[in-house]
Amino acid sequence: MSAITIVYRLIAAGAVVLVVLELFSQRGWKEKLTAGLVLVPLILRALMIA
After folding, report:
1. Is the pLDDT score of 50 beyond 80?
2. Cα–Cα 20 to 30 A to 3, which of 25, 27, 38, 46?
3. What average pLDDT does range 14-43 have in this prediction?
4. CA dist 47 to 4, 9, 24, 30, Å?
5. pLDDT the model gives residue 23
6. Torsion angles phi and psi, residue 16, rounded to 5
């Protein structure tokens, strides 16, 4: 695995952590739904699936 791939995965994983923190800090269901929808592609990117 190249260094660029590792950095890409770390950036994606960091974004996942930030979105999860935001998900639990929101009170409204619309904001939680939006954060959840953003979370799915980020997780897939961190795992290099899509």
Report:
1. no
2. 38
3. 95
4. 14, 7, 22, 26
5. 93
6. -60, -45
